[in-house]
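call fold(seq) -> tokens
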Amino acid sequence: MSPTSETAHGGRRLVIVESPAKAKTIKGYLGPGYVVEASVGHIRDLPNGAAEVPEKYTGEVRRLGVDVEHDFQPIYVVNADKKAQVRKLKELLAESDELYLATDEDREGEAIAWHLQEVLKPKVPVHRMVFHEITKDAIRAAVANPRELNTRMVDAQETRRILDRLYGYEVSPVLWKKVMRGLSAGRVQSVATRLVVERERERIAFRSAEYWDLTGTFSTGRVGDASDPSSLVARLNSVDGRRVAQGRDFGSDGRLKSDQVLHLDEAAARALAAALENASFSVRSVESKPYRRSPYAPFRTTTLQQEAARKLGFGAKSTMQVAQKLYENGFITYMRTDSTTLSDTAVSAARAQVTQLYGASYLPDKPRTYAGKVKNAQEAHEAIRPSGDRFRTPAETGLTGDQFRLYELIWKRTVASQMKDAVGNSVTVKIGGRSADGRDAEFSASGKTITFHGFMKAYVEGADDPNAELDDRERRLPQVAEGDALSAEELSVDGHATKPPARYTEASLVKELEEREIGRPSTYASIIGTILDRGYVFKKGTALVPSFLSFAVVNLLETHFGRLVDYDFTARMEDDLDRIARGEAKAVPWLRRFYFGEGDDNAGAASGAGNGDGDHLGGLKELVTDLGAIDAREISSFPVGDGIMLRVGRYGPYVERGEKDEEGHQRADVPEDLAPDELTVEYAEELLAKPSGDFELGADPESGNQIVAKDGRYGPYVTEILPDGTPKTGKNAVKPRTASLFKSMSLDTVTLADALKLMSLPRVVGADAEGVEITAQNGRYGPYLKKGTDSRSLETEDQLFNITLDEALAIYAQPKQRGRAAAKPPLKELGTDPVSERPVVVKDGRFGPYVTDGETNATLRTDDSVEEITPERGYELLAEKRAKAPAKKTAKKAPAKKATTAKKAVAEKTTAKKTTTAKKTAAKSTTAKKTTAKKSAASAKSDE
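ret:
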């Protein structure tokens, strides 16, 4: 049935999608007989706490939201913030003759459709409407060809949801008891955290090795040009037939893996260079091989996240937020997909653009097809590509900013996937000479020339290693033949040191999770967001650094819940869930075996897996019940060396030597943003050498109370020790006087007199002519004067003690500054933002340092520092901020144009949004923006 022919057949159709943006786009493609409304993500889910569980449920059911004793029946409740929307949907459904559930076509979308059907209880025909792109043709085809709900997909999603609830609600309380309150565990997030922690352990255990070699610049003696250079640079390859050691020849312990290679130290390398100074060199061999490079497959979710990180500096979360907007507005196909398949329509569109933009010589004879590399990929989905049967070029879209850049990336990759291979030649030249002391030295140089760029004309993939050479980079060597004489223009001696394995970035962690088949690719962005938000991981530049807290959490999980964070077990569990989705296994027996450790042996292979720690003998319930063997202090303690221990305490990490209350005991807080591999014995000794704990300054002459200086979480401060028996709670509670040290003070130099002066604040300066008291106070944003509700800033901290009443009155006699004070100079310049093309700087703001390009401001995170922030990190923070910003343009246009027809329009529901009064439209627009923002979080795929 054509959407535009509904008037002929009669009736009204309600179409429900997830988001308001998606609803707006689809509405434009359907006729007037269709009402398109958003559910705004999930309308129903497991309860967030016992308070949301209906009163009839008690005990474990109330705590978990799942009835584990009765076939793991989930308890679903309508989200509190969705009740109004559910009422609206029911009202619209009551006036409709048909219901179309048009949520996304993946498991999550299928589950949302099922929940809508269960809650709305429609008495009219229900159709499942699916599409992978939001174009006019695709939407009309979806209406004309609906299907039934896929209950297998719903069951698979429900099983995952129940599994994740059991895992999180049973394991997280163990972390609260044994590590710290407020922590969380998750089926995939805990494994992802373990990966980051293990990489840091490798870095801590790593021992660097030093090695040396030679680099020679050799001349042919003739005049060169761009196609035939006159010289080449070659690196020493072997001496007397023994290969010279390179970084790959050393292990993580700093030792050579084999004694077959020659390890040159600095002295040996310099001696060899001196012996080769007057040597004669010639070409020993020239080996040429054909070079061929095929196009990269079109994007799927994970490869898009990786490339957007490499090329655009986007985090995984930012990438998905921008992609969601592109999809909802009809620019790209669905962005959560495991498939690299292109439809016949898409292939035709891409091939047409290849011919149009690059010429027929770049078009292969047959369309290219790409086999899916992801296990259990949902091949019904397409790869991520521009939407429609004709691809819009980036310039034709009218997009700007991050949406333009991401669309351009997707468009280039898709078009390039249907182009010819790049071809050329790779050449290796070996150069030999004999030193003055008779040693034979051989140098090697590699070159590459591309004779036909093929797909590289459109697109070249980035690399995780910033030092890696990209595919389209040529290295031309002189045209030489075996036996040609060469002269050494320069022989340089180069020292190198092996480096520890690089930390994960968001892109490389996504790649690692996918290669290990852990979790679902569609959830990786939210998983990374979770471990960042929980404080398990923080960023330094683009690198993901584990916190000391994550070391304690992973240590507990590895020791006592080994199989739950075992990589193979987690991957096999994913296989089991996919078997359930295909109908090859049943959910309830599998869940019973996972939770209780009992049931059918064929319920799932992973459920019987163990890691040799004995924890495979029981199910999850048994593991979390017996916590007596877990020593909270032991799992949060890590040796640093020389008798120093790193401990993760309730208020953060600290180093300690000796036992508390014993002679010689030392303790010092560790900066929370310190990377674990930077905590060396030397640095720990520095921390312990600093004044810490209660640094006694003396007794207050008036009260007799001891005054001490401390180094707290928020900086050094002074306080008094109240006598024993002083009430600390209740109506008669007495709080000790406390004051932060001035910026000019330190724990090493602060005196009793300084402390008493600080604790005397606020100081009464005097009163004005009307008797209003003026005080000098030290606040969060610096020193200031206060008179009633009128505050004025002071220039220095010393003024708190020496400003006179006349000086204070003179300050109040001046008009109070309104607006901004004089702009402070930037703390750091980062360069030009690739999106706004404006200079990016770091500034010091009221709430701390932030990056800005003059249009967008983004506060530095706790793991960022002014000194270490890189340009790329600055651009990433700005990109994330832009991605979160609500649309601004449509909110103000509607009131001005439609105000004159306000009264008439009120009665017509279908046009009410556009024709209400100016004030109401503005209010609705604001509400719409807020609703859209909420939707972004609500519709995100469930964390695992």
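Confidence is low (pLDDT under 50) at residues 4-8, 600-618, 887-943.
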